[in-house]
Structures are given as C-alpha cells and as structure tokens.
Amino acid sequence: MQRWADPGPVGVQEGSKQMRIGIAADHGGFEMKERLAADLRCAGYDVTDFGARKLNRADDYPDFVIPLAKAVAGGEMERGIALCSSGVGASIVANKVHGVHAALIHDDYSAHQGVEDDDMNIICLGGRVTCYALALDLIRSFLGARFKGEPRFLRRLDKVARLERTGPE
Q1: Contact (CB, 8 A) for 122 and 81
Q2: 42, 84, 124, 131: which is the annotated catalytic residue?
Q3: Overall pTM > 0.85
Q4: Mind listing the pLDDT tens digit for each residue in 96-124?
C-alpha cells in the first residue's frame, strides 16, 4: 500500500497553515488509527492522537472518542476521525457532544457532502468493516471539503441546534 508521501490535492500546501486533525480509536480501530495517523502526518497534517495508545481488547470507545469530540467542539481540532469496530458506537457517542456533527461514512459522496451541506466535523469509520485504501480516500474527501454555508444549510443546522438546546417539542 502506498503511503501519503505526496500531500496531493488535499494535503497541506506550501506556506499554508497545517490543519489540526484529532484521531481516536478503541481496540476495534486501533491498527487503522495508527496507520492513518502516520499517513496524515506524512501528508503534512498536524495530528493529535487521543488514544488508545496500545491495543487493549478491554477498552471502551467512549474513553477516546469523547475527548476527541470535545476538542473538535471546542475548536482545539479543526476536524476529527473516530474509529471503532463498525464506526457505529463512535458516531453515537461523538454526536452526544454539543457542537459535534459526526457521521458514519462508507462512500466518497457522503464524505464530502456531509461537510459541504451539514458541516460535519468528525468522520466515523469502522476499523473492521472499511478497508484501509477506502478509509484513506474517504478521509481525503472529508478533509478537502468545506462547508458551503448556503441559507438552506444554515436553516437546517439551526433547527438541529434548537433541538439540542430545547429537546424535542
């Protein structure tokens, strides 16, 4: 498998600020996290690893994804990558943190459209269900996308924010 030696179209451009990326995984996504973090650093991204620091089959994804989600919501990280076995648990817990828009992604369209239309700031992947080459492609699309900020998207996100503040009506 070729590593990201060349940043390509979404890598850090010369003279530009490094995008701060947080990454987290439990045992189910640990091996993929380690490879992704190395490849993202090689491509010029500023990567913070929120753990796990070692493979431990008894660990729990909330212990790593919650600190990542808080860092993204707080602006310490510009984007986040959360992994567990399927990506489902990581997505559920990340979305419990106010200000996080996380989604489980399996295709390129959703990887960029989630950012462009829905202001997605954390991509969730399954370390046991997503092959590494696809994970790299999905992350490239995710990191290369920008929120469009069109009135219809802002209107929809305002409805989500109201629900977060007040609960269901």
Answers
A1: yes
A2: 84
A3: yes
A4: 999 999 999 999 999 999 999 999 999 99
